[in-house]
């Protein structure tokens, strides 16, 4: 896996808390903790399906707009309710 280094500025109190957390929960260092936190947010808690292309997302948005316009879907809330069932 290819990697790229980034620089991250954090307040000193957050760094100190992250160091304690890393030590208490078995991380090698803050970098490992940060990488896991980012992975968790991006891959596990992301509410959007990142596998769609921009073109596919535009088509879905167009379909939703047309459906609402034709009265097949009354509102975004109704659409969300149907999609989450």
Walk me through this protein's architecture.
With 85 residues, the chain is mostly helical. It folds into 2 domains: 9-46; 49-85. It has 4 helices and no strands. It has helices at residues 12-24, 30-44, 54-69, 76-84. It is elongated. The model has no long low-confidence stretch (mean pLDDT 82).
How are the SSEs placed, and which strands pair?
Elements: H1 12-24, H2 30-44, H3 54-69, H4 76-84
Percent in strands: under 5%
What is the helix/strand order? HHHH
Structure summary, number of beta strands: 0
Question: Count of DSSP helices?
Answer: 4
Largest sheet: none
Name the helicity range. 55-70%
Summed over residues and divided by their number, the pLDDT gives a mean of 82
Question: Which properties best describe this structure?
Answer:
85 residues, mainly alpha, 2 domains, 4 helices, 62% helix, elongated
Quick rundown:
The chain has helices at residues 12-24, 30-44, 54-69, 76-84.
